[in-house]
Amino acid sequence: MRTYILKRLLLLIPTLIGITLITFFVVQLAPGNPVSRKLQVGEGIKAEAITQDIVEQTKKLYGLDKPIYVRYWIWVKQIATLNFGRSYTDHRPVIQKIEERLPVTLALNIISIFLVYTISIPLGVYSAVKQGDIQDRVITFFLFVLYSIPSFWLAVILIYFLGGGEFWDVFPIYGILSPGAENFPFYKKALDFLWHITLPVICLTYGDLAYLSRYQRGSLLEVLHEDFLRTARAKGLPESKVIFKHALRNALIPIVTIIASILPAAIGGSVIIESIFSIPGIGKLGFEAVLSRDYPVIMAIATISAFLTLAGILISDLAYVLVDPRISFEGRK
Amino acid sequence: MSKLYLILLLLFALFLASCKPAGGESDSSVDQYSKYDNTKPVDGDWLIYNLGEEPGTLNPITATDAYQSIVNDGNVYETLVKRDDRTLEIIPLLAESWKISDDKLVYTFFIRKGIKWHDGVPFTARDVVFSYNKIMDPNVDAPHLRSYYKDIKKVEALNDYTVRFTYARPYFLALEFCGGMPIVPEHIFKNGDFNTNPAGRAPVGTGPYRFLRWDTGREIVLERNENYWGKKPHIKRIVFKLISDPTVALQVLKREEIDFTGLTAIQWARQTSSQRFKKNFNKFSYFTPNYSFIGWNMRRPFFSDRRVRTAMTYLVNRKLILEKLLYNLGDVVTNPFYVNSPEYDHSIETYPYDPERAKKLLDEAGWIDHDGDGIRDKDGIKFEFEFLIPSGSVTGEQISTILKEELKKVGIRMNIRKIEWAVFVKQLDERKFDAVTLGWSMGVESDPYQIWHSSQAEKGSNFVGFKNKEADRLIEEARTEFNREKRIELYRKFSEIVHEEQPYTFLFCRESTVALHKRFKGVNVYPLGPDHLEWFVPLPLQKYGQVTMSP
Prior knowledge:
By secondary structure, chain A is mainly α. In chain A, 71% of the residues lie in helices and 2% in strands.
């Protein structure tokens, strides 16, 4: 087991280098440059734009006049000391910009992922056990409806009907804290935060929830037809024990695969939801960075996501051992 | 200009009049705001202003976005001179007067005495020289500003209160450029790297408001500078909120959680007309210096012919687009100057929508459907071209769809291509396009050189490739003509040439539309929009700030 983990960890390094190399080249060779965004005014462009001069001078300032492989080397040397460089838009350290936005994104995503799992697994189990019954059909119908609703549409509807104005005034519709919340005691501040993120969390959750519970239903159904379950029933085990002890444990294996995507998902923001609810999160930062060709920010977010994805895959591989006794790394020798 | 301004005021008056509820309605809260219309200005209250997007930085020299200037300009930072709200003439600000040498090469500004930076350090001519040196420093991220000042030979402080700019050649916009140069405090910016100076997130200026705090992604707060050298504004605090989605912004406005926000055309026309809205809010519209256009790449075989370009203009139903898609929030323009300035030539008639005349012109130019495939051709070249629009440009999308149908009817195939902004700019730079729609945003007085002079056709902003000897001469002559009347005469001739040649199909000057809470009084709508420095809230209507007011 230990040698296996060590091997996997060592393998991370070349994989990570490969990912960053490709990302670096794709991002920097894409048409456009960091200057173009600076000339934009609303839907128009600044009339005094002496584009050529500005482009050349800015390139020099940002070190973009060097050949691309030199730039990659410089970047790798920086990254080795965990220095992500400075953003082109405001010259602040990239890591500082990410740190500023990470807590909100993390909170939103962790709550949303938690809800997705705690609701969708029981829902999937229930619907598999009741396969073909009216309950199953109703649940299936609603899950498909949920799955097909675009989140930006639902967000606007929620804001319109629950956000004051003409209809009910239940939830705040922008930002993450009320004005003056800095001075609230801790528990009140936490409540205020939860109250603010209710609508965005709903929008982030329902799609994955629909997807994952269908997934759970499918994988449990497959197991339910296995011989060992017939055996379990035949020896007189109560149905609840058959389902939750014998069936579910086997049906969880495919779900474990999905854990690999949880880590990167926790820091990946949603551009649409963040923009609609004016939440200062990672999604908007990344999106803005791509539009303005803010290479250091793009690379930092890409690298962190790549690392977390790789770590997630490793963790989910290890988690298989926990849920499935048939899998063992030692046995492979 | 004054005429247009009058019309605008009239419209505004009409609008105000129409805001009053119909006779039968006896809602006492309607009078809640209007009964204080004639009270004396008092200090107090806050203005909650929706900025929309977050500025990149509040360093006025490295910043490039419009949000930075909304926060900084005239609030935190000030310049030597500014334009008067009402007349748009250049008037003193930090400089109490200035002198221009007879050869128009030397500009001497006499700085007001007793002005202090927000941290108490006196403001002097040395700060101006320092700011100029920083703008020109290649290590400072300000190439977008350098082009304005490249004709300056030197800037020197003659003493603490006199600063002199010496130009290499005369230029009619020199006063506006050097007088409008952003000025930052030397004592704060002199140490360390300019671009990363912490004052970029906590600006220190000389203006009527001082910076209080900036919570990333939430708000930027300014408070009144109690030691301001000039007339202090009445509003004690300005809170800039960052609500980027216009639907949400309008709803937050309706909840009275913000006082001021921009409106989209459809919001202006459809979603802000209820009695309930009008009870609490006023709407204003005004023209800022901008215009949109369709540019025809004159290097292409079809668009090299003046008759074809004119025919294209005949095919764009601008009145209809303005009315149906833009809810009449704008004017159809015919020449490249600011509609509220005397440079703009109102006497030029727009080409009407007239497909018949367009067909005739196309026939005359030799673009006839020779092979009967439904598409016009000439010398074996089919009249098929690509129409480039930046993605996200709503107007561009709407116009292109209408134009495509219109062109199909006369036998021209147009393919719409939507590309992301950064790539779009690159295509323009490399002149890789057939036709394009875009808007220019400019100054109150603008110099057509950068966009229309033939020397800019290769590398400058003249990407359509407009080359006209007479136009070149007029542009060059105007650059050194310091008499505005004479310059206007030159520009009138230039505008006629542009109208005749139609390198652009000029579209619209769009109106800016905003909504403001009714408790604010003393609100005037100037050509460039309302000025919050003169607003006040009558004491009984004041909403914020009473509790937290410092003793």
